[in-house]
Write a structure and sequence with these properties.
single chain, 701 residues, mainly alpha, Sodium/glucose cotransporter, 2 domains, two-stranded antiparallel ribbon, two-stranded antiparallel sheet, 28 helices
Length: 701
């Protein structure tokens, strides 16, 4: 039935009915906004961990990781594995956002600056960024389902068969191109087909799954249980979905090895460049770009829209800390398994996968039988829902508290909860719109760290620096929103920008060489006298777009037609060009490094000088109360916690003895024994995961 076995359909239907039942059971327990948005701040360590793992370890992460590994090798996995370096930071961050005792991230600016406008700006930008993430989730889910519901050739239309035939020819020429063996006629044909591929006009297969019906059914089930149970329903369902995440993350590994005939055969099919973790010439993720990405990620996650929901729902700060790093590190471990599946897909089906985003679906479709395929599909649905539901809830909180309440005041809690339910449905529809207008998942994921920094930088400073002023935050948010968010999307709508010879510039084609052990094929070709002997191997590095995600000929069939920019315009690199950098001569990793460094440094170049030149008059008492609250530990008993807060408000200097720099404007506190232990454990787990990743590479190599 449209590519599904009846048993698979029954499993999927049973799962969907189960989550509706859970949402219905929770419906009567939602009585206040805090119940709907934060589950009453009563979640224990187990459920908090399941919620964090579900929110972070979605199926889209699995699909994207497999896609990156298939497309760029293990070096591309850093986009998803980079969070392993931020684990120790998560330990402290979770405690901070539990201590602020707020409902939304936007309320931070109201609590710190008594501002009504800044929380509204945060809500607008935060909703936009989160809807982008939802769109990516929709796109990844759709492509996976399409890859698992492939039409047989006798059911394809003539246009679909033509597309498949052209893709097969493109794959043949692409292999010759990367080996440097194309003649002039083949080169022209290759560049024409490459343009069609970039524009998504040729594919390896046709699918029964239609985007409209997939999006409609998928959204309807998410919407139904969220509108009934809010955050509490999301947490309970995430607990169920956590087990599905673990199952579908590992079930492909043994069947892939059986299909390949063992580990040694798998290792023999993986090209050497795909095992270069720190750049192979065509890999953007060298050590420098990874370091820059870590910096951008740390700053960006501090202002993430879900921090209050993911941490504020915990009973106390220790619960939030343990659950946060538990969920984060579980995702990093699973990331290694997902990357392995991407390499399995390459080893088995590299010649038949047109879109790397479909690698997971093709692997599942070909290796899993009836029943197992249904479990996989239910797991993908569930894992994606576990992320989408939490996103929808904290976005509805942002909308109601910062965009609706200021204009519609003094209504009952039930009224605001119902408005939140309507907002959830609207967010799902916006996510669908983004998905339909997004061409590449990987390009959007690479852009997100720069976008998250817009509010990540001021949130990081306001948590610890008394001297930060409201005027400085306004300047930074406006300037960075224009440079990093608005202009990259708005300027390409002008033909003069999209077709500009300067902005469609590309890097120079390069040939890179590395010492690698010789394979049997190398011995047969006379390149080495025995297997394992170190030899120099060369690879062709194709030109890379400098200022756009990619560039392609306007008419792919005309090699003399002008180039056009595709995707986001990297305004960070335009600034780098004005600073005198010779961008076309740089490697892909150097370009990505510059993008993240400029995006990371620019906000602080605005926030700190403007803060020193301005001041916030009349906010002295507000600022004192804010930092007194931040130094007051959370008591699991709400009544006792309120009493402790009252003491701190009455005497804002109550915990000043805990300050690390007592005579400064910096509010860093001395580490407690728990802080030190949590930090050391986090560092140990980080090193252990990196060692496991290194061991995987050595084992394949």
């Amino acid at each position: 039935m449209f590519g599904f076995h009846p048993l698979d359909l029954l499993i999927i239907l049973f799962y969907l009915l189960a989550i509706i039942w859970i949402g219905h059971k929770v419906f009567g327990k939602v009585r206040s906004e805090e119940d709907f948005f934060l589950a009453g701040r009563s979640i224990n360590k187990f459920f908090q961990y399941c919620m964090n793992m579900g929110a972070l370890s979605d199926a889209n992460s699995a699909i994207r990781t497999a896609s990156f590994a298939f497309h760029k090798g293990l070096g591309g996995v850093w986009l998803m594995l980079i969070g392993v370096f931020t684990g120790p930071y998560h330990w402290f961050m979770a405690g901070w956002f539990r201590r602020v005792r707020l409902v939304t991230m936007g309320e931070l600016f109201e609590d710190r600056f008594r501002s009504k406008i800044l929380p509204t700006l945060y809500a607008l930008v935060g909703i936009w960024l989160s809807v982008l993430i939802m769109g990516i989730g929709y796109k990844a889910s759709l492509r996976t389902f399409q890859a698992m519901t492939i039409k047989p050739a006798d059911r394809c239309t003539w246009e679909e068969l033509q597309s498949i035939e052209l893709y097969d020819r493109y794959r043949q020429l692409d292999q010759l191109y990367r080996a440097g063996e194309l003649d002039r006629e083949q080169s022209a044909e290759y560049h024409m087909l490459n343009g069609l591929y970039i524009k998504g006009q040729i594919n390896a297969f046709a699918s029964y799954t239609r985007p409209f019906w997939f999006y409609l059914i998928y959204s309807a089930f998410i919407c139904s249980y969220l509108m009934m149970g809010g955050f509490r329903a999301a947490i309970l369902i995430d607990t169920l979905q956590g087990s599905l995440i673990l199952i579908f993350s590992i079930m492909l590994i043994p069947v892939s090895l059986m299909k390949l005939g063992g580990w040694s055969e798998f290792a023999a099919r993986i090209p050497d460049p795909m095992l270069y973790v720190f750049g192979s010439g065509n890999n953007e993720f060298a050590w420098n770009s990874i370091a820059a990405l870590v910096l951008a990620t740390v700053i960006g996650i501090t202002g993430h829209q879900g921090n209050m929901g993911l941490n504020g729902s915990a009973r106390d700060e220790l619960t939030a800390q343990i659950a946060n790093i538990g969920g984060a590190y579980t995702k990093r471990l699973l990331t290694i398994a997902w990357a392995l599946c991407g390499l399995f897909a390459y080893a088995l089906y590299s010649s038949s996968i047109s879109d790397p985003d479909m690698a997971w679906g093709v692997l599942s479709q070909n290796l899993l039988g009836p029943g197992l395929r249904g479990i996989m599909l239910a797991g993908i649905l569930g894992a994606n829902m576990s992320t989408m539901d939490t996103v929808c809830v904290y976005l509805s909180a942002l909308f109601v508290r910062h965009l609706y309440k200021p204009f519609v005041k003094n209504k009952s809690p039930r009224h605001y909860i119902n408005v939140s339910r309507i907002a959830i449905a609207c967010y799902l529809l916006l996510g669908i719109w983004v998905s339909c207008n997004t061409s590449s998942i990987i390009h959007v994921v690479k852009a997100l760290p720069s976008l998250n920094i817009i509010f990540g930088a001021p949130v990081l400073l306001l948590l610890f620096w008394k001297r930060l002023t409201l005027k400085a935050v306004y300047v930074e948010v406006i300037v960075c929103s224009i440079l990093l968010a608005a202009l990259p999307q708005w300027l390409p709508t002008y033909k003069s920008v999209k077709y500009s010879p300067w902005l469609t510039a590309q890097t120079q084609q390069q040939t890179v060489a590395r010492s690698r052990p010789a394979s049997q094929e190398d011995v047969d070709r006379g390149l080495a006298d025995k297997v394992g002997r170190k030899i120099k191997k060369t690879a062709l590095v194709p030109p890379t777009s400098v200022y756009f995600d990619s560039v392609v000929r306007i008419d792919p069939e005309d090699p003399s037609s002008p180039l056009e920019g595709i995707g986001r315009l990297h305004t960070e690199l335009i600034l780098a060009c004005w600073l005198g950098f010779d961008l076309p001569s740089m490697s892909p990793s150097a370009l990505l490094t510059l993008r993240y460094l400029i995006a990371s440094i620019l906000p602080f170049l605005l926030l700190i000088p403007v803060s020193w030149l301005t001041c916030d008059k009349g906010l002295e008492e507000t600022i004192a109360r804010f930092y007194a609250k931040m130094k007051t530990p959370v008591d699991p008993d709400p009544k006792k916690d309120a009493e402790e807060l009252a003491k701190s408000y009455a005497d804002p200097s109550r915990f000043d003895h805990t300050k690390l720099l007592p005579c400064s404007n910096w509010e860093f506190c001395k580490w407690t024994r728990t802080d030190m232990l949590g930090f050391l454990v986090s560092v140990g787990i980080t090193l252990g995961i990196l060692f496991l990743f290194w061991g995987l590479i050595r084992l394949i190599d």
